[in-house]
Amino acid sequence: MLSTRAKRFAPWSASKIQAGLRCSRLFHYRYVDRLEAPEIMAEMEVGKAVHSVLEAALKGDSIDYIIRKRAEMLTPVDKKRFLRLTNEVGSFKARIAAFRRKNNVQKLLVEHRLGISSNFSGTTFGKKETVFRGIFDLGLVWDETNMAVVDHKSGVRFAMSSIGEQLESYAVLAMTHFPKIQKIWLGVHWVAQGELEWTTQVTRQHVNNNFLPRLVASIEAAALAVSDGPRENPGSWCQRCVYRSVCPSVKDTMFEPVDDGDEFWDDTFNG
Asked: Is 4-251 a domain of CATH 1.10.3470?
């Protein structure tokens, strides 16, 4: 069971937990004050556009119109990257179609929203009693007892371990909502490379004994970190934060004054 403090900031998600553990001020800007982000990162816009194309493709919709309309909303540089990333959508769709035929997949879940209540039973994404929730970019169920969950990543490829808790939380959601599932595979679709990377097979027992306690501990840690109000936690992530222009700890360091007597400039321009 979650503490009263953790429930106070519910519903939680993997990204909300990460925000709370990373920076209390970021958490309060986004989830408590609900402050509209004064800045939108280009990679976020490209990522959303790519996700919309993948969603349409997996649902069997025509993607040409979506690609064209999304591309019109991007800058020339971002448009070029977006179009390059969407080149891989067709091959990914074909790979999933082949997997469905081979394994006789009974359920295909695209952008599937799930929630967990305070007693850790399944509930809907937006219900009042929901304490944790998430969205599967892609879920596949076959043989009634097997499931795979895939998360799309359109940015730079990084170590799977860095998103381990996010994937673990998807396993908790899956096991809660699909009681017949006994084994689950968790995967990342690296869009730029057109590759699927998988974790090892995970059993229901492992999820219940390991992933669920870790998820609860992370929620409690994030709730504790943000419970005393907004506090800055400067770090490398500040330069990628959408609130950096209004954050007290970043504003003062974004534009550092240049010392006219700096030896670098003297050596470079004066020989």
From this structure: no
